[in-house]
Structure formats: structure tokens, C-alpha cells
Inverse folding.
């Protein structure tokens, strides 16, 4: 009996005159041997028989792999409409095989992929955009409500989290903001000098650089950095909390996630963005001054031109942009984090969406501000 248990699995075939195919299995049908037998069985069934008989009298051992082989033969018979009979299988294996009913499986062929066309795709895209806009509006309304309540009753704000976010989003970003502001001022001054040198008015590089930095590039550059640095971190933090059911736990305890998690982050970002924009402006002016000195002009000429062109109106226009940009970056990052779905890549998708949405909204808002300032004559 021990020698019989060690026999390798084999399958033999015999075709009778009435078209009946008899498959005789012997040996051990386990996870190591069933694969080869299964492939040979598929080869023997390349021509569909009128009837199939499976003789398992010589099967010494059978695990789940062998049972799966017998079940696949039953399923194949149902699909191709020929009877399958399994004989001489040991009683304990019969009870295991009968747990799976082949006739309960869906034997219909897989449905072809749906045919899509351009109008359908455009409709789906428009619907998703509308849903996203609706969620943005609802989120902004809830956030504005909590901001108003906080303004009336500041005690309700979690000040410890607020100051922590101010440190993370503001103090920790000073280095990168100062460096990029300096480089942008340097680049802008060199680019302006190339054009103005043709007309012999290089001295007005100071005027051009100062206006461009303080009115447009300073707030815009700061907002882009905040979208990539702060907005993505908010989305990752809240997305991880969403996957770990921490946000659901807060709601279960009666704590509103917008007030508890979103409000300190949005207020901190709104506060530090104009401060960082001022730092970017100063760093950019330092970079422009380096170029100005390199062209042979004295530093006093640069400061005189900057003081003459920079008015309170221009300063205020840039700071208003920075405040709005900070509000957008914080709100979009938190919203994308709260929208995180389940899955191994969900947090990465939310982070990407936060950065992309933040940059798109910043560019669109910059365009709106440009039109408004032009109409107001600012």
C-alpha cells in the first residue's frame, strides 16, 4: 500500500465505438503532480467527446488540486453539453467533490466590453466635474460656517494644532521660499536686462523686477510651493486617517472632522502664505540687486527705483492674492484627503489630486485677479 501511495500521477485514455471517452487516473493527485496531469487531460479533450467517463479507482491520494481537476471536467461538460460521469472515487473524496455544484456556476461567456464613444465619454467627464464642483461648494460652505463661528468664539479653535501647523507650513518652509525667491529675482533681472540693454535703459530693470515680483511672481511662486509641499501633506495625512477609520471614529464620538482637523490647517495656511510671499519678494529683490550691482549700478540707485515704483496699492494687491492662494491650497489639500477612497494607492492618488487641483485653481485665480485688477485700474 505504501508503494502504491508513492506512484506518480498518470492519466490514460480510451475511446469507445459510441464516442465515449474514458479517462483513467492513477497515483497521487496532489499540488505537485496534478498540473502535468491537467495539461495532458486538456490535450486529450481537444476533440469534444459525446460522453466522458472518469475512472478514479487507481487514485491513491487526492488533495484540493485533484478535486479541482475533477470539478473542472464536470464544468467543461456542462459548458460543452456532454455528460460527465465520475466512477470509483473514494467516498470521502466524493463528499468533498459534491460540495461544489458545477450547475450553480455562471456558464455564460463573459460579456464584451462596453462600446464607448466620444459623446458618452464627454458626458461622464462632465458629470464627474459637476460632482467635484458640488463637493467643493459644499465643503467651502461648511468651512466658511466654521470660520465664522471661530471668529465669534475663538475658544472653539484647537490652538495647539493651529500653532503646530503654522510651524510646519510656515517656519519650516522659510529656506525653500527664500532660495527660490532669490533665484527667481536673479533670473527675472537677467532676462529683463537682456531686453533693456538694446535700448540703453538697464536702470529700469529694478522697476520691472520689483513690480513683477511683488504683484505677480512672489505670491504665485509661494502658492505653487505651498501646493506641492503643504497641500500634498494635508491630503496624505487626512487620507491615511480616512483609510485607518480615524475620521469615522471622530464622527462617531460627535466631533466634526472639518472643525477638528480641517479648520486649524486651513487657517494656518491662510496666515502663513502672505508672510512667506513677503519673504519671497524680499529674497527676489536681493537677487535682482545682485544683478543690478553686477551691471555696474550703485545699490542706492536700485533702492531708489524700488521705493518709487512700489506703492501701497501694489503691496496690497499682492498680499490679497497670497491670502486667497493660501486659503485655496489649504482647503483643496484637506478636501482631497477627506475624499480618499480605499485601496493601496488611494493616498497617493489623493496627494496627486491635491497638488494638481491646487495648481490649477491657483492659475485660474491668478487669471481672475489679473482681469479684476485691469478693470479696476490697479
Amino acid at each position: 500500500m505504501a508503494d502504491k501511495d508513492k506512484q506518480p500521477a498518470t492519466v490514460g485514455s480510451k475511446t469507445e465505438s459510441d464516442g465515449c471517452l474514458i479517462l483513467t487516473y492513477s497515483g497521487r493527485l496532489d499540488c505537485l503532480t496534478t498540473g502535468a496531469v491537467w495539461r495532458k487531460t486538456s490535450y486529450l479533450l481537444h476533440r469534444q467527446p459525446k460522453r466522458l467517463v472518469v475512472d478514479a479507482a487507481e487514485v491513491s491520494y487526492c488533495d484540493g488540486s485533484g478535486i479541482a481537476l475533477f470539478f473542472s471536467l464536470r464544468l467543461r461538460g456542462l459548458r460543452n453539453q456532454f455528460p460527465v460521469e465520475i466512477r470509483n472515487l473514494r467516498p470521502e473524496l466524493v463528499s468533498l467533490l459534491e460540495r461544489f455544484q458545477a450547475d450553480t456556476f455562471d456558464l455564460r461567456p463573459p460579456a464584451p466590453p462596453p462600446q464607448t464613444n466620444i459623446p458618452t465619454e464627454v458626458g461622464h467627464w462632465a458629470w464627474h466635474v459637476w460632482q467635484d464642483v458640488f463637493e467643493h461648494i459644499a465643503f467651502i460652505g461648511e468651512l466658511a460656517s466654521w470660520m465664522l463661528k471661530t471668529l465669534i468664539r475663538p475658544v472653539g479653535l484647537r490652538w495647539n494644532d493651529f500653532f503646530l501647523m503654522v510651524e510646519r507650513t510656515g517656519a519650516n518652509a522659510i529656506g525653500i521660499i527664500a532660495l527660490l525667491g532669490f533665484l527667481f529675482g536673479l533670473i527675472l533681472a537677467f532676462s529683463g536686462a537682456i531686453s533693456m540693454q538694446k535700448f540703453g535703459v538697464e536702470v529700469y530693470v529694478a522697476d520691472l523686477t520689483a513690480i513683477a515680483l511683488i504683484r505677480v511672481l512672489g505670491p504665485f511662486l509661494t502658492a505653487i510651493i505651498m501646493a506641492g509641499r503643504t497641500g500634498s501633506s494635508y491630503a496624505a495625512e487626512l487620507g491615511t486617517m480616512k483609510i485607518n477609520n480615524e475620521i469615522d471614529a471622530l464622527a462617531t464620538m460627535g466631533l466634526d472632522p472639518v472643525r477638528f482637523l480641517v479648520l486649524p490647517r486651513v487657517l494656518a495656511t491662510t496666515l502663513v502664505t502672505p508672510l512667506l510671499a513677503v519673504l519671497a519678494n524680499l529674497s527676489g529683490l536681493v537677487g535682482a540687486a545682485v544683478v543690478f550691482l553686477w551691471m555696474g549700478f550703485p545699490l542706492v540707485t536700485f533702492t531708489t527705483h524700488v521705493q518709487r515704483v512700489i506703492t501701497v496699492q501694489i503691496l496690497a494687491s499682492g498680499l490679497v492674492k497670497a491670502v486667497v492662494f493660501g486659503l485655496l491650497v489649504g482647503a483643496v489639500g484637506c478636501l482631497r484627503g477627506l475624499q480618499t477612497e480605499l485601496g493601496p494607492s488611494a493616498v497617493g492618488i489623493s496627494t496627486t489630486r491635491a497638488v494638481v487641483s491646487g495648481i490649477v485653481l491657483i492659475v485660474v485665480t491668478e487669471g481672475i485677479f489679473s482681469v479684476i485688477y485691469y478693470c479696476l485700474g490697479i
